[in-house]
């Protein structure tokens, strides 16, 4: 399952630390990550009944005025983001393209970096006047799209199905709702939650991502909304929230496969997710509404995420829904582009 590239390249070599030190080299990323994990307590698996499981649940993103998948195939996708059409590599699209070549060639922007997942890459912009950013909307909320060197544009449209589900629940709650958005990126989930009336804590390890999210808050006129913007490693932050006894009604996790915290912390999804998910379970309030996990670019299945979520959420009642987030192409006889796996616990 590939959706997005990791933000940093993991060090795949795993020499033993002593050997590395003898050779006078710095410890590898894997070694540092292993050492940090050794100092951690074991994950806490709370007892109780496992919530009911509903799987597979396939959540579709349909073409809409903010976003559409116009065509896909031959390792690429052609999308409309607001007023711009954008052409990017897409490893999942192993089928043929349907639109004429002229439509693809007329894209307003094309990512021309190597198709290698780790490539820094560049963009070719069709319009000379096209700047680095452009106005976009998500469910009526204005924000900025941006051409990044990592081929991303500041939004992952497939997430919109989770966001709509979340904001409906926040509005229906009829009480104050506290949301924790981990790996929050450009802040759309945080802004939509705040607009729906929630009090939000947004955590991301990247100063640049936090700056972009705050810029989006300004564009959306939500600069005074109750959002705490926190630049910190997600695991470190949640560990502290457990110690402080703070609680949230909704926790969102959209972790990359690999990432770094601001103090050099290493995030590796396979090794760190169970620990972070059990911590997230511990900070759910007694009247919590949902715990939402998305995963991409991992060798996994929605059944593994479901089993993990089910164990982490024992004793909560409700149900676990697991499956894939897919984007439907625009037009007749559409193909479905799979973007990520998800698992969410929801109160019923
Ligand atoms: C793919 S984005 C999440 C997308 C977001 N949920 C959305 O749909 O808009 C992953 C984010 O995780 C952040 N990140 C990577 N490692 C992290 C860590 N150790 N702690 C916190 N955030 C991290 C990155 O800076 C990036 O903004």
Set out the fold topology.
Layout: H1 17-22, H2 29-38, E1 52-61, E2 67-73, E3 76-81, E4 84-89, H3 101-105, E5 109-111, E6 123-125, E7 133-138, E8 141-146, H4 160-173, E9 178-182, H5 188-195, E10 199-204, H6 207-219, E11 227-231, H7 234-244, E12 250-253, E13 258-260, E14 266-268, H8 269-282, E15 290-295, H9 302-312, E16 319-328, E17 336-346
Parallel strand pairs: 1-16, 4-5, 9-10, 9-12, 10-11, 12-15
Antiparallel strand pairs: 2-3, 3-4, 5-6, 7-8, 13-14, 15-17, 16-17
Helix pairs in contact: 7-8
Textual characterization of the structure:
- Helix content is 26%, strand content 29%.
- The chain has 348 residues and is an alpha/beta fold.
- It has 2 domains: 43-61 and 155-346, Vaccinia Virus protein VP39 (Rossmann fold); 67-146, Sandwich (Immunoglobulin-like).
- The protein has an 8-stranded mixed β-sheet with strand order 1-16-17-15-12-9-10-11, with helices on both faces.
- α5 (188-195) links the parallel β9 and β10.
- α7 runs parallel beside α8 (269-282).
- The model is unreliable at 5-20 (pLDDT under 50).
- The protein binds S-adenosylmethionine.
- S-adenosylmethionine binds at residues 4, 7, 156, 159, 183-186, 188-189, 203-206, 209, 233-234, 254, 256, 259-261, 265, 267.
Which short descriptors sum up this protein?
single chain; 348 residues; alpha/beta; Rossmann fold; Immunoglobulin-like; 2 domains; 8-stranded mixed beta sheet; 5-stranded mixed beta sheet; 17 strands; 26% helix; binds S-adenosylmethionine; 23S rRNA (Cytosine1962-C5)-methyltransferase; SAM-dep_methyl-trfase; methyltransferase activity; transferase; S-adenosyl-L-methionine
